[in-house]
Design brief:
The complex is a heterodimer of chains A (172) and B (1049). With 172 residues, chain A is an alpha+beta fold. Chain A contains 6 helices and 6 strands. In chain A, a hairpin with a 2-residue loop joins β2 and β3. The termini of chain B are far apart. The chains are: A alpha+beta (172), B alpha+beta (1049). β1 of chain A pairs antiparallel with β1 of chain B.
Amino acid sequence: MTAEGEQSTVRFTVDGETVAVVGAPDRRLVDILREDCGQTGVKRGCDIGRCGACIVLVDGAAVNACLVMAFQAAGTAITTPAGLDRMLVAQVVREALIEEVSFQCGYCAPGFVMSLTALFLRDEAPTTDAILTALEGNICRCTGYHSILRGAESAARKFAAQRNGAAEGQTS
Amino acid sequence: MRVATPTTIEDAANLLARSGSRAIAGGTLIQLGWARGESMPECLVDLSRLDLSGIDTASGTLRIGATARLAIIERDRRVADGWPLLAEAIRSVAAAPVRNLATIGGNIAGGVGCLWPALVALDASIDVITDGHFATLPILDWFTLPAGALLLAVLIGPVPADARVTVRKTGLRAAFTPSIIGVAAVAPIVSGVFNAPIIAAGGGITRPQRLRASERYLHGQASDAVDWSAFRAIAAHEIETQSDAFRSARYRKAVAANALAAGLGGTTSLPAGRPSRLRQPTQPGGTHQSIAVSRENLAGRWGVRPDIAAKVAGRLIYLTDRRSDDMLVGRILRAGIPHGLIRTIDTSAAEALPGVVAVVTAADIKGINAFGIVEPEQPALCFDRVRHAGDPVAAVAAGDAETAARALALICVDYETLPLVGSFEAAMAADAPALHPGGNLRLELNHRRGDIDAAFARAAHIVEDIYETPRQMHGFMETEGGAVIPEADGSLTVAVGGQHGSRDRLQLSRILGMPEEKIRVITSPTGGAFGGKDELTVQPAMALLALKTGRPIRLQLDRAESVVAGIRRNPMTIRMKTACDADGILIAQSVDVTSECGAYASLSPAVLETALEHVAGPYRIDNITSRGRLAYTNNGICGAFRGFGANQMVFAIESQMNRLAQLAGLDPVEIRRRNLRVPGDPGFFGHPVAPTERLSEMLDQAALNPLWQAPRGRDDRGRLIGTGMALHHQGTGLGSLPPDPGGGRLTFRADGRIEAAFGLDEMGQGVMPAIEAAVSAALGCARADIVAVVGDTALAPESGSTTAARGTYVIWRTAQEAGRPFAAALLTLAARTLRRPAEQLALAPGGIRDAGSNSGALLMTFAELAASLDENERPGETVAFHFPTADYKDGNARYVFCFGAAVVRVAVDPVTGMVAVLDLDQHIAAGPIVDPAAYLGQIEGGGGQGLGFTLTEDALMRNGAYVTGNLDTYMLPSIRDAPQRMRVTALEDLDDGDPHGPRGVGEIGIGAVTPAIAAAIADAIGHYPAVTPIRPEEILDALARSGVHEGSQ
């Protein structure tokens, strides 16, 4: 059993690099990532997990960084938008969203990319309903969502084309 | 607060048994509570290291460990197959990313979780440690346990194969919503008879409960012969619940009873209403040139905005992302009370706190402590009085956010509280305290034409109602903030999201007592504005801190502070009485509008003027009286918001038109056609308006819309389907009274790219792609040849405000006026180098081509041309002009208009009274499309905001404080609230000789949405909602009043 006082050191990885954060155990991951780690691609929108702008991957699952307190992050592997640069699935998602001009102000965009990447990592051929479920936690105020949906569905087609291409490659 | 992380159940139980400790698993619910002001425990007992997250079905009983995350349970095949009711209930909890954190134990332990009804109906048990002992108890016994009990697991037995089961959560929007009430039932059927059903309700403020009387009623009844109306009455009667600011107890009871009856007996047991069925419009003849706006359809014109890749990658540095080593964190102290006199402000304790670098108050203001776009009346920092809870009183700069927050708490402000002025009516009361020297009535506008009394006296049909519209929040995702930097040369850089840099600079100059030349204002990129960053927000406090400390200051309001401090849409109450003759010709219209501007006027007077400019809609009405009054209150601040008063009024007038059509026996297109303005008619005030009116064409588009042919009646989910429409026109530009300067600059850069600089702001709406598209089109080069420079008073000339759908025109006209001489200059210079006559050359994508050749081959690239020039030879062209306006000064009149029609199909849920928009089609006529993606984005995005205005959004105030303090209760539409389908068409042509080019579409996408939804609801159920956001309880009442059930029509 461990009991931690007001200040504690928490270790976890951010985009593959180990970080040690000293501070109150209830500091929010969103602040740690933005202020200590310089990851401003993680956006602050509501601070209570109700907009999705700060979503990151924690051990591969999309979660609101504002709802994760420092002690809860201990020992986890965190992926920020910058960390997605190395992830092929995220590249396909981003490319589709860019082509469809899915965003306007773009402040919500990193969170949407995170949710969609987590979805496609789990399910390469999601139904429209599964896409909607994956994006229920992301609020966009500019677009009315349809440009984002077109981007998500375009990404799904790109993954399908990749699979078909791979399948053709195998049969030929 | 300390965190203990036990690794054994015994340790955990012991820790929890101590007072002041509280268990935490996912922590999502706890943090919502803290955000709402609940106190933190002394010790958080982190259960995550206990081995309590397993899911087991080995014995046929589902056993879920308390710390199992909801997302894991949701995706568990065994749960989905054996206990689908639970899986469905879990999908209604919060949203996917929250379910990746939240645990089933946390949902249960809080007592308010959305899973409670399902778990009770499934007859779940819980394993707990309480008072040092292990016990397995019925789940409802959780509420009887003493504090400190440790929940270990939930156990659910097998669900009978032959049973009717149902679960349903009703909230405030379609998904990711707090629970208004939830229900669940498991009703086994033995030999066709209900046997020992379990029926439950709970969630949110409704305590989890078994509905025993309802169970008794069903037990023993043949499942196909239940009187579901009687069942509903019993269920509604026995549910114990409460009212809150959002929904009444009566509504909760009705919805719960409906959901149970519909879930167990089918939706045909609910009232279906009496559809009013708008007449189908007659399809017009002739050809129509509207085009579908989509990437597929406009592939050749589709451009990708220059900032999108960085935005999608999270690489774009917003102003709130700016950081530097010596930067301090700023925080602003808000009044916290809606109305009071300031006796003293003592900042000494805050200043003494280590880590605090400076505290500023009104005493630090060297200039005029007042600002306001229309009239400077809002203090930068309050000194004698506070007029709303978000009024700024002081600000601190500290080395880190935690210290800044602590410092705020150490500032002592002694107030003498004053009585609250909480509404328009209260403001107008004879004994109301005056909020400003001129009294509480900020503005009254009156207009009269014709003989209204005689006209009403001879009317064949009259419709009168009172329309109410919400205090809508802009809800930009990036809250107010940025960075303010004192520069080495004594100047100040203010990089804060805004909508008019040069005006922000002027206002700051007055406050700071600093010459404008010494202030640089950067306003782009901004993460959304919609009018809410038009007025100064946090700039004054930040600038004062930067000047006092001599160090850069960063500040971003958290959402809760943004809610308290920010500007809202003016809520309006519009009493409207409209008359037509027997042929449906409008003969009289009387309008009385009351609204409030909150504590300071900001742009509210202009909003009210715009509303009253639209009282006749796009129709000819000979006899009109209108009155509008705007009052000061202590309810926050209201002002500019997309639509700017027009959309409120359009809701009223267009609803009146649909209702008169029914009375007159006309279809909704025909009544409008009979009353439409005719091209060439003067504007509302008798002033001239620009050519290219496209109202008739928009009516044609509405009539041709295929949604009229779509099925109505009930859909496969029992919802009631209806279709409706509305017409809309909205002016662009600031109007005939205020100065409305436009302009821009083209420059040939050393790298051969063409810089197009505008003092407009990129807030997401697409100024940059519009610049690329318009300038490249005017010059004949490629979009990639253009570099858009915006939102920086040091880098761009005055272009006017980025409001009122005016940016597109400013860009287009600059491209035309500056483009011609600029292109000529480039060609002359190229001609010199190429030793050919300039007339033989033309600009092309990437460079200069032979004007006589279509090969596309370049004679030289722009980069080569630039390299051949001395710095002082590179051409530049700056233009300045005034936005086109009517020469009319007796009122603020718009001159250039956009036109649109919306056709909407809705589904009204007879269980909840909630409305889903299935189709939202918007037909727009606004001249040529400049950038298709931005055009589509503005119309779809405006539609989304219109949908929220109509169905889910209202910033509720009680006693001068926001009830909807954050996005957990202020319901911006989620992706599940978006229409299933959205279509946008554009009619691009202009009248011959129309000199005004493309119209901005920033505002035309919102106005028609609300009345079209209202009309579709009326089409479905026969009731015309007049209060927005449309109240589900009103819809249920209307359905109940109709008394019409399936089969009884």
